[in-house]
């Protein structure tokens, strides 16, 4: 099994995917954090004031615990953001890697003037597309033995029909 050594293979796609993933994650986490902060600062404090029956030291203790909750929420949000950062990078590579390999394989086929089977690494995405591509190549190769090679410039391209 080949191991990928390049971190970024399709820079434009990976940058787009990464930025969108991070943006939407950041927006979601911000909504949760702002909602919790507003609840603690607005609703909880007002309830404490309205209660009136609760002593002042108890209210200050509840406020301290509420502030500690906000700090814990902030740390949790930052941790989730860091995790989403790693996930975005991982998933962009899981998508971009096979696309990059397809592009290189198609370029190789173009240089050689014929279609060849293609294989992805174990665990890569788009395995169904590779299976379909390989079936198509098998079909073209089995039919190409019946077709004469078509002269195009200096290269002979076997397995391709000329329509027109």
* Helix count, DSSP H or I runs of 4 or more residues: 3
Overall average pLDDT? 76
Largest sheet: 2 strands, antiparallel
Query: What's the β-strand tally?
Result: 2
Count of domains? 2
Strand order of the largest sheet: 1-2
Strand % is under 5%
Reading the helices and strands in chain order gives HHHEE
Poorly predicted runs: 150-154
Using the alpha-carbon principal axes, give the shape: rod-shaped
Helix percent band:
over 70%
Radius of gyration: 29 Å
Structural class: mainly alpha
Distance between the termini: 44 Å
Keywords:
164 residues, mainly alpha, 2 domains, 3 helices, rod-shaped
Can you describe what's shown?
With 164 residues, this protein is mainly alpha-helical. A hairpin with a 2-residue loop joins strand 1 and strand 2. The protein contains three helices and two strands, in the order H-H-H-E-E. It has two domains: 10-100; 113-164, no CATH class. Strands 1-2 form a two-stranded antiparallel ribbon. Helix content is 71%, strand content 4%. Helix 1 packs antiparallel against helix 2 (56-112).
Write the layout of secondary structure elements.
Elements: H1 11-51, H2 56-112, H3 127-144, E1 150-152, E2 155-157
Antiparallel strand pairs: 1-2
Helix pairs in contact: 1-2
């Amino acid at each position: 099994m080949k191991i990928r050594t390049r971190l970024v293979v399709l820079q434009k796609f990976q940058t787009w995917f990464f930025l969108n993933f991070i943006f939407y994650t950041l927006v979601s986490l911000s909504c949760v954090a702002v909602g919790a902060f507003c609840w603690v600062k607005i609703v909880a404090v007002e309830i404490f004031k309205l209660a009136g029956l609760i002593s002042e030291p108890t209210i200050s203790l509840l406020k301290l615990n509420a502030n500690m909750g906000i700090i814990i929420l902030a740390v949790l949000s930052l941790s989730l953001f860091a995790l989403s950062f790693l996930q975005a990078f991982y998933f962009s590579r899981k998508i971009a890697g096979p696309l990059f390999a397809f592009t290189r394989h198609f370029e190789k086929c173009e240089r050689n003037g014929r279609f060849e089977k293609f294989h992805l690494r174990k665990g890569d995405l788009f395995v169904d597309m590779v299976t379909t591509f390989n079936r198509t190549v098998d079909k073209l190769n089995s039919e190409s033995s019946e077709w004469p090679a078509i002269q195009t410039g200096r290269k002979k391209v076997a397995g391709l029909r000329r329509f027109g």
